[in-house]
Write the C-alpha cells for this entry.
Amino acid sequence: MTLIFNGEQLAKRKALKLKAKVLAYQAKEIQPKIAAVFFKEDQASALYTTLKKQSAEALGIAYQAKAFSFADSVKVIQNYLDDLNQDPSITGIIIQKPWTKKWLEAVPGGDFASWWFGLVSHIATKESHGVNKDVDGLAPATLAAIKAGTWMEQGMVLPATARAVLSILKDYREQVDHDFSYLTEKILIIGQSDLLGKPLYWHIKKLMEKGASIPATFGEACQIALDEAQNSNKKCEVKLVGKQGLEDIIEQRKSLKDFRVIISATGKKNLLHGDLLAPHSILIDVGEPQGDIDLPSCLNRADFITPVPGGVGPMTVVSLMANALDLLKGVV
Ligand SMILES: NC(=O)c1ccc[n+]([C@@H]2O[C@H](COP(=O)([O-])OP(=O)(O)OC[C@H]3O[C@@H](n4cnc5c(N)ncnc54)[C@H](OP(=O)(O)O)[C@@H]3O)[C@@H](O)[C@H]2O)c1
C-alpha cells in the first residue's frame, strides 16, 4: 500500500509548536517580522506571498510584502533591500523567486542568473551587516556555507523548500518506518536549482560523509537520525541531476530502480512514471503547479508519495516560519 503524505496536516502540527515559540519570543519583547519582495508579473510569486503572509500572521509573525515589476531597475530594488537591511524591526527578508520562464517573457534575451544574483546577494548576512536576515537561505553566502557544511555554526538556515523535504523524510521515519534513514539509501535528486536541488544535495552529502559527527541540535531540519550510518552495511549514495543527467541514467540503467528515494523538482508534469521507479520507493514531488510524478501509476508500488497539491507546498510555507524563528537565535 502506498502512503500518501498529508502536507496540510503535518504543517498544522508544526505550526502549533511554532506558535508557542513566537509567544515565548514576544514575552521577551522580541517580535519576528519578515519582509517579502515579490514580482507582480509572476502570479505564482504573488500567490505564494499571500499564502506565506496568512500563515505568518496566524502564528503571530509580522509579514510585510512589497510588489516590484520586472521592469524596475535592480538598483531601485537594491535600495529597498538596503532599507530593510538597516531596519532593526525586520528580522528576515525573502525575495520570492519568480519563474525564470516568466522573467524571460518580460525581459527577452536577459540574463536571469545575473539579475537574481544582483538581488539575492543584497540581503543582509552576518558577514555583510553583522546580522543574518536571509530567511529563505538563498543568499550566495548562505549557499556557500551549505556547500561547505558550515551553515549551522554560522547561524544560517536552509532554503525553506529543502528544509520542508528533510522534515517530510524525518516525519516518515518517525511515523511509519523507524528503520528508514537516508544514510542507508540511494537518493536521486532531480532538478539542480538553488532553491532545492543543490542545497539539499550538498547537505545530504555532508551528512553521509560525516555521519554522526554533524550536530543535531541546531534547527529541526538537522534532527535526523544519524546513528545507523556508522553500522550500516548498505551503501548510501546521493546523486543530483538535471535534464541531461536524468536522460543519461535512464539510457544507461533503463530505469531509476537503483534509487529508493527520489526527490523531483523540475516543474515538468508527469516526468516520472511508476514503471521507471523501484517498488517500495519513497517519492517526494516538489513540482508545481502540477506534479513531476504521475501519481496514479505509483499507487500500490511506492511506499510513500507526496501529492501535488497538498504535499511539499504547505510544508515549505511552515518551514519558512521555522527559519524565521531560527534566525532569532542569533539575536538573543
Ligand atoms: N512545492 C514548493 O514549495 C516549491 C518550491 C520551489 C519550487 N517549486 C517547484 O519546483 C519546480 C522547479 O523549480 P526551480 O525554481 O527549481 O526551477 P529551475 O530553476 O527552472 O530548475 C529546474 C530544474 O529542473 C531540471 N529539468 C527541467 N526539465 C527536466 C527534465 N525533463 N528532466 C530532468 N530535469 C529537468 C532543470 O535541469 P537543467 O539543470 O539540466 O536545466 C533544472 O535543474 C517548479 O515546478 C517550481 O514550481 C516548488
